[in-house]
Amino acid sequence: MKLIIRILIIGSITYFLSTFLTWWTGMIISLLVCFLLPSSILNAFISGFLGVGLVWLGQAWVLDVANKSAFSKVIVQLFPVEDPILLILITGLIGGLSGGLASSTGASFRLLTRKTKKTGYYS
User: Fold this and answer.
1) Mean pLDDT over residues 6-31, rounded?
2) Within 10 Å of residue 105's Cβ, how many Cβ atoms?
3) Dist CA 94 CA 103 (whole Å)
4) Nearest to 25 by CA among 95, 104, 106
5) Model pLDDT for residues 43-56, shown as the tens digit of each residue
6) What pLDDT sits at residue 17?
């Protein structure tokens, strides 16, 4: 349940702020959300990957539909990708990886700053 909440928080804030700010806004949001909300590093990576990746995938698809794939066809000529749909999926993958790495960094920072309890006399 916490995973879904983190995905929704990261995705919604990234969606609203990415219209005003730069492309790396999702990375900062992923880092901050996973720093503030406790989770494992793998769980944080999954939430950042899905939160930012789905937003990037959706925005790339909406932009592609809005201009009738004109921009995708130009980019396909520059890169060795034959299908505009594959280009949209690669965009979502890149956004997902960057969001996942940022959120796992936030979870790692949280683990570094957390105080550990002593369990015995010698530890």
Assistant:
1) 92
2) 19
3) 14
4) 95
5) 999 999 999 999 99
6) 93
